[in-house]
UniProtKB/TrEMBL annotation:
Residues 201-304 form the Fe2OG dioxygenase domain. It comes from Urochloa decumbens. Pfam families: 2OG-FeII_Oxy, DIOX_N. GO terms for molecular function: metal ion binding; oxidoreductase activity. PANTHER family: OXOGLUTARATE/IRON-DEPENDENT DIOXYGENASE. The keyword Metal-binding applies. Residues 1-23 are annotated as: Disordered. This is Fe2OG dioxygenase domain-containing protein.
Length: 356
């Protein structure tokens, strides 16, 4: 178990008065300075978050050019929308509906799976760092491997929730294996080298609801962070925007779901950043809150490691053909969080503790 000092998330149970429907927002949420830190790129500033087409990645006729686009999305942005991802529409729909229906339940029902003790799984307030609370309610659950699941915290209401998450989680595992195969092609390593780093590793899911807030300029839905694991896939369960990605010191709003809502938003996490020796970017992101509408999302986080270590892929390093010098030191996966947290305590970035 991780000690209290290096817990990645601090979670609290949610009480009745958690999200007041008034402009009188409790001080524990107020963080106006953080909201205004860094310019937000406006609507008249043209930019496009990359859109990658999974069908093109897999089609021999278009694979080479789409793989190059995937590579530049991961290098420049660390974020992209993935279309034609191949997950069955019914599976996506059940995941969205279960997520929305869960959050629509009365608080008592949601608290049937409330966070317990020091645990990070279950229903509760979202990551409350810096002694401030995020304006969000979330359920976090380990989804893979199956034997790591804590079924007591898997909602039984709505009744389809467990099956929906089970199916969706399995589908995302398969999709990520394919996607990582294309990333390997872009990086110039054998698909098995990168796929092997992901296979059988832990996956967890977070469903979030960011309720509407009468003072959206004063609260944050999800504190600026990079994702600590390897690869993340985000499903918009409704059409409310709010996610912003940091690039070149500015915040770029991620557009609301593409028409039809069929795309997933995929992003590089810190471990993939290290695995690729810094070639792929783990980008900072945050969620802003809306005055009128709730935002609801379902997010899957996939872990990866090489021989139990968080380290650059040996296939990319000196010794290998065209190899380069390692920019990150290898640390056992079990110690990875400790290194990151001690870097943070010294006010360095999360990855700085691993830099050589
Ligand atoms: O809900 C979102 O839009 C983003 C969530 C997120 O960044 C996370 O859970 O790590
Ligand atoms: Fe995130």
């Amino acid at each position: 178990m991780e000690g209290a000092s290096n817990k990645i998330v601090h979670r609290d149970e949610i009480t009745d008065d958690a999200f007041p429907d008034s402009a009188d927002i409790p001080e524990k949420y107020i963080r106006t300075d953080e909201v205004s830190a860094g310019a937000v790129v406006g609507e008249d500033d043209a930019y496009e978050l990359p859109i990658i087409d999974m069908a093109k990645l897999l089609d021999p006729d278009s694979s080479a050019s789409e793989t190059a686009r995937l590579g530049s999305a991961c290098r420049d942005w660390g974020f992209f929308q993935l279309t034609n991802h191949g997950i069955d529409e019914a599976v996506i729909q059940r995941m969205k509906e279960s997520t929305v229906q869960f959050f629509d339940l009365p608080l008592d029902s949601k608290n049937a799976v409330a966070v317990r003790g020091d645990g990070f799984e279950g229903y509760g307030h979202h990551y409350s760092r810096l002694s401030k609370l995020d304006w969000a309610e979330s359920v976090i659950l380990i989804t893979q491997p199956v034997q790591d699941r804590n079924m007591e915290l898997w909602p039984t209401n709505p009744p389809m929730f467990r099956d929906a998450l089970e199916e969706y989680s399995a589908a995302v595992t398969k999709l990520m294996a394919k996607l990582v195969g294309s990333m390997a092609a872009d990086l110039g390593v054998a698909p098995a080298a990168l796929q092997g780093a992901f296979a059988g590793k832990r996956q967890s899911a977070a469903i979030h609801r960011y309720p509407p807030c009468r003072r959206p300029e004063a609260v944050i839905g999800n504190t600026a962070h990079t994702d600590g694991l390897a690869l993340t896939a985000l499903l918009h369960a409704d059409g409310t925007p709010g996610l912003q990605v940091r690039r070149g010191g500015r915040w770029f709003p991620v557009p609301p779901p593409l028409p039809g809502g069929a795309a997933l938003v995929v992003n590089v996490g810190d471990i993939l950043h290290v695995l690729t020796n810094g070639a792929y970017r783990s980008a900072e992101h945050r969620v802003m809150v809306n005055a009128e509408r709730a935002r609801t999302t379902a997010v899957v986080f996939q872990d990866a490691s090489v021989g139990g270590m968080v380290a650059p892929l040996p296939e990319l390093l000196a010794g290998a053909e065209g190899g380069e010098v390692a920019r990150y030191r290898a640390v056992p996966r079990s110690e990875y969080l400790k290194v990151r947290f001690s870097a943070l305590a010294q006010r360095k970035g999360f990855l700085d503790g691993l830099k050589l």
